[in-house]
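A student in our group prepared the protein record below, which I am reviewing. Here is the record exactly as it was handed to me.
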Amino acid sequence: MTVSIIICTRNRADSLKNTLESIGQTSVPAGWKVEVIVVDNNSSDHTASIVRDARLGNVDLRYANAPIPGQCQARNTGLREAKGEIIMFTDDDIHVPSNWIPAMCHPILNEAADAVTGGVTFPPNVPALSLRPFSSLRSWFACTEDLDPQKPSRMVGANMTFHRRVLDRISGFDVELGPGALGFGDDTLFSRQIQVAGYKLVGALDVVVEHHFDLSRLTKERLINLARNMGRTQAFIAHHWGHQVVQRLRRKYIRTKLHQLWARRYALINERTDTPAFFHALKMEQDHAFYAEYFVQKRRPFKYALRGLKPLAQNDAA
């Protein structure tokens, strides 16, 4: 059995070091060949030296460079570099459990699945996101508590695994989505394409990794930007993949613009980030960003056929 673990990173050398150390402590079943590919998305820090100096025991470690900005540029570089039958993804700020590799791979080896979504939680030093107003916001930070363990709707890039055969029909990750582009949605769209293609996605939400993200992402400015990116991402997928038609678009745009102006004038400035009013204001930002981006995207030709597996340009080339 050959397994490729792909980690995409950009300017998080110290966090990456901790992630690699946790992977180095995982168990590897006898006879398995496991490689870790760190894809550097044009970092300007000491990422390369961290990879060069890391020792992962019986796990091979390789370094790859993806100079074009964007997480999906790095993800696709990792897919091209990967040699494994099974491909695993995690992030550069994740700590994995000791049984992570076999536990995430076994549903595929047992022919119960083609793809597996694992669990993601937060360490104890993230008290803010444990508050009730953030219950539906935690998924923006990769938390998987909203997923149905029996029938998960999507994979989460911080802890996802799939067999190489899915790449026979799906070309990889859309480079217009994810961090460095619209901000979100790359793993969501990939998951939907896997299911539309007829591959089976199952949950292993009891195989839980910890997301040790930078707490500066919880500042007002960063949260507002996350809300906008979520709305923009949803508009892109709705238009290009779902071919969704928004009725009375201009009216909805104007209404959400007025809501957004109110939110910026009052709640986003005056409220603490742990209040229901602030969370409600974030939703207003998200809604307005959706309609504003939809105005932009609907002027473009569809990138995919309805619920398509590959961009239309790739289909034409094939």
Notes: DSSP finds ten helices and eight strands in the chain. The chain has two domains: 2-216, 220-297. The mean pLDDT is 93. Residues 220-297 form one domain.
